[in-house]
């Protein structure tokens, strides 16, 4: 089982002091926060493509790097990084061939039902699935939308630039969508 493998590895990792090369402090060295997608292809590629090492930035992730609600946990994390942890810049980084491209709530609800979620559970939601379970059609437009949500937040200091980029998950190439300076 995966959990057992993880726990066994972790015990050895701690015992052999594998953590020592990752020791850093809570303030990001490069004074930045990155909001990006949770895609598995980006876990190691994104930091390498941006020349980042452990401790350089705060990293916030969700499916698709989509931020529409200025009062959700993503925005809270970005504001904490800025106000409490000294981040001075925000980078929104989407990626090509994202799983959120073309995702529609109807199809997603069907996937949930296939996994055993009952229609009554869906009917009891505070928000209808079509209000929050959709993806996007164009990654550049989605990045722009997330950048605008952050830029327009009343608690974002005026001197904090918000940049928008799209990364190719195959090559690591970055395309600039919006320069925040």
What topology emerges from the helices and strands here?
Layout: H1 2-15, E1 32-37, H2 42-49, E2 57-62, H3 73-83, E3 89-95, H4 105-114, H5 119-123, H6 129-132, H7 139-151, E4 162-167, E5 174-178
Parallel strand pairs: 1-2, 1-3, 3-4
Antiparallel strand pairs: 4-5
What this model shows, in words?
- The chain is 36% helix and 17% strand.
- It is α/β, with parallel strands linked by helices.
Short description:
The chain has helices at 2-15, 42-49, 73-83, 105-114, 119-123, 129-132, 139-151; strands spanning 32-37, 57-62, 89-95, 162-167, 174-178. 25% of the residues are buried.
**Helix vs. strand class:** alpha/beta
Number of strand elements: 5
**Cα Rg:** 18 Å
Q: What is the molecular shape?
A: globular
What summary fits the major beta sheet?
5 strands, mixed
Q: What is the H/E string?
A: HEHEHEHHHHEE
Helix content: 25-40%
Q: What is the tally of helical segments?
A: 7
Note the beta-strand portion: 15-25%
């Amino acid at each position: 089982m995966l959990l057992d493998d993880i726990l066994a590895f972790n015990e050895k990792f701690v015992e052999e002091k594998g953590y020592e090369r990752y020791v850093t402090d809570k303030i990001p060295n490069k004074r930045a926060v990155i909001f990006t997608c949770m895609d598995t292809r980006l876990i190691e590629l994104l930091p390498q493509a941006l020349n980042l090492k452990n401790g350089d930035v705060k990293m916030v992730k969700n499916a698709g790097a989509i931020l529409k609600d200025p009062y959700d946990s993503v925005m809270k994390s970005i504001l904490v990084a800025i106000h409490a942890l000294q981040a001075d810049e925000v980078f929104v980084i989407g990626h090509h061939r994202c799983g959120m491209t073309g995702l529609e709530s109807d199809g997603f609800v069907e996937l949930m039902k296939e996994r055993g979620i009952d229609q009554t559970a869906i009917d009891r939601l505070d928000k209808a699935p079509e209000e929050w379970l959709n993806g996007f059609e164009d990654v550049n437009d989605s990045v722009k939308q997330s950048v605008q949500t952050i830029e327009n937040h009343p608690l974002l200091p005026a001197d904090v630039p918000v940049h928008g980029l799209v990364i190719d998950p195959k090559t690591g190439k970055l395309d600039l969508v919006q320069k925040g300076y």
